[in-house]
Amino acid sequence: MQHGPAVRRRKLGAELRALRTSAGLTSGEAARLVGWHQSKVSRIETGASGVKPADVRLLLDAYAVADAQLRELLLVLAGSDEGGGRHHWWHAYRGVLPPTYRDFISLESQASAMSTLETSVVPGLLQTPAYARAVTRAAVGGLDDERLDALVEVRLARQDVLRSDPPLKLSAVLDEAVLRREIGGPDVMKQQLERLLEAARLPQVRLQVLPFAAGAHVGVTGPFVIFSFSSTSDLDVVVLDHLTSSLYLERKEDLRAYTEAFNALQIHALSPEDSLDYIAGIGDGA
Questions:
Q1: Can you give the pTM of this predicted structure?
Q2: For residue 270, which of 68, 244, 275, 277 is within the disulfide window of CB 3.0 to 4.6 Å?
């Protein structure tokens, strides 16, 4: 398990190595094309050292990589501030966002799909402003109003990924506790449940409820997120949130285990149609 930046360096290096190999170049030949020592190419490919976006661009040009989406993704992994649309907006909040949160947002903004198990709170991408404020105030103690406002703005701005072109495909399994835990008071929860019903009807959102009646399940160990990327599955990653940090799992066996776990949770959960009825019932006081 690694923190976000180390994982991103290794994933970026592995992808650059694969692109070099596809271009039919040795590391020495690649180094000569861009005017570097071979050792620099090797350090980048193993993730032993960071790499500037400008250097990534040089390598991509040398490897004749024309896929615009892949180029942008790799540049973002290198820390590029470039890009349009929904990308890089969070840099305006650098002063209030911890690095691990920025890493999470950057992955979320570039991913093509996101699978998440939530056991305590509504996923951030589906929260109402009032719910987001109540959750943030409870999770981060000692916030002044200005910082709280900024963090809520970030939470709401993240939701643009569901409205982009193409939108992020979100698959969420919610433990019933998420729906029963009263956060922010009855009115806030009523609005939040209504928001979930609206979101569940979007074609890019698949929402399922795991009722208490399902008993023990593989997700009892805690929530997790799986980010998937359409350009290359080698960049897929599992994120586990902790109180003060996030951990990233990148090994293929870890990805396989969490993917299988999520598939099992979907099987044990209510169908999307039955989940809508279940959420509506809770909203009506059932």
A1: 0.80
A2: 275
